[in-house]
Amino acid sequence: MSQHLHPKTQAVSSGVSRQDGHGGLSKLVLTHPSGSTAEVYLHGAHVTSWCDAAGRNALWVSRRSRWDSSATIRGGIPVVFPQFAELGPLPKHGFARTAEWETGDSGSDDGAVWVQLRLGDNEATRALWPHRFEAELRVELSGSLRVALEVVNTGNAPFEFTAALHSYFHIADVDEVVVSGLEGIRYRDKTRYGAESVQENSALRIRGETDRVYAYAPDELQVRDASGGILLRKRGFPDAVVWNPGPQLAQKLDDFADDEFRTMVCVEAACVEQPVRLTPGQRWTGEQVLSHLPAS
Ligand code: TA6
User: Fold this and answer.
1) pLDDT tens per residue across span 151-207
2) DSSP characters for the chain?
3) Does the beta carbon of 167 lie inside 6 Å of ligand 1?
């Protein structure tokens, strides 16, 4: 069967192949019988696309993204672990997003095509974060896209971490997009040095740079505009983050084109306010399920 595939395409399991992606980085491509697809780079266990049968990617990726093993891919779903943002001594957003993950099991059953990627502690991670762990990212493509992060403490001392699935969504126009589900929720506003505020009782609209951590946010959020949108259902991640750099910060980011803040918004399932604590042998799972919303 593999003779019918592109020379650099290697069949992994039913509906899953391994291919060379941008910058020669390896990616796993999931193809659902409906024609929808998803791509996951081993670099960072980074989901970069979730396309419908017509090839429309609901995830946003910058045309300026770097695609090399020393950088984070700008867009898609970076895995933030074991530290959210600058909330600790580690490199921003931790090391998982720039680590090389290994391919685990994959397959297709119950109408879903799925892959698992694994990252364990090694000399480089222990130099930054002296803990023994195993992390697994499971990506499951059906009518929806499910992304689940599992972390196990494989050492003999407890540890704590923060984490997020830093999802970048493709939107038609930042002036029109509405993020709902956060009404009345308390948040820290990073654009105001972490000042606390409460979301008013109306859906969030993006007006300039927006960088907020909503504590204990509802598990169902919507990102919508007139052409449709995304329903994000999260579990195990108590918090939610919303980010758009706005025009000024966009200009300062070298892997982000100046005008691209107009067509993206990050809505992230996160665990920030209260770090997860795992004792030896304990396991934690957080997940998000994305589905399409019809045009209103
Ligand atoms: O999750 C929001 C955030 O922490 C913002 O403060 C912003 O910096 C964003 O992540 C992107 O971070 P990055 O390190 O990928 O440029």
Assistant:
1) 999 999 999 999 999 999 999 999 999 999 999 999 999 999 999 999 999 999 999
2) -GGGS-TT-EEEETTEEEEE-GGG-EEEEEE-TTS-EEEEETBTTEEEEEE-TT--BSB-B-TT---STTS--SBSB-EE-S--TTSSSSSTT-SGGGSBPEEEEEEEETTEEEEEEEEE--HHHHHHS---EEEEEEEEESSSEEEEEEEEE-SSS-EEEEEEE-PEEE-S-TTT-EEES-TT-EEEEGGGTTEEEE--SS-EE--S-EEEEETT--SEEEEEETTEEEEEEEES--EEEEEE-HHHHHHH-TTS-TTGGGGEEEEEEEEEEEEEEE-TT-EEEEEEEEEEE---
3) no
**Ligand 1 centroid – CA 40 distance (Å):** 20
Q: Is 95 in the pocket of ligand 1 (CB under 6 A)?
A: no
Q: Is 268 among the catalytic positions?
A: yes
pLDDT in tens, 258-276: 999 999 999 999 999 999 9
State the catalytic residue, choosing from 39, 136, 140, 268. 268
Confirm or reject: Cβ of 241 under 6 Å from ligand 1. Answer: yes
Nearest CA to ligand 1 atom 12: 85
Q: What is the pTM of this model?
A: 0.96
> Ligand 1 in contact with 152 (CB < 6 A)?
no
